[in-house]
Amino acid sequence: MTADNVILWESxxxxxxxxxxxxxxxNGSNMxxxxxxxxxxxxxxxxxxxxxxxxxxxxxxxxxxxxxxxFRFAVGGKWEVEAREVLVAGPREEVASKVARHAIEYLxxxxxxxxxxxxxxxxxxxSGDALAMVSSDALASADSEIQGAGVYIRQRYSHxxxx
Length: 163
What we know:
The protein has helices at 3-28, 32-39, 46-58, 67-74, 80-89, 92-106, 112-124, 128-139, 144-156.
């Protein structure tokens, strides 16, 4: 290894140590919720959003507090994968329940894609009850395409949905 590569590596390790110390400081802050709320807002800079998602992936106790913001990211957009990872890392039952409740508010007139994305997210959270609710809701729709999504959800996640 060259001297430049050693210096580069040592700099990276020092930066990682500094990030770990800063995350611990934020985690101990009484303003943590406010800091994260601002960082997860739609208006926040991309770097703030990414840092908040990384923080919540490591410090999961606050995930339920941010289900609305995380849900918004998880159903599409640049942070879809990261937001789903954070939701899955949080306390499952509490997060799944809040996701299901929030979906009703956030998706008042869901289309086929909304149903499928929501089902995928609920499956990742391991919430068979919420999946059954979403499937039943889709099956009850007057729209035949949405009914088809309900059938697909029932079949795809039958192992999670109790009959």
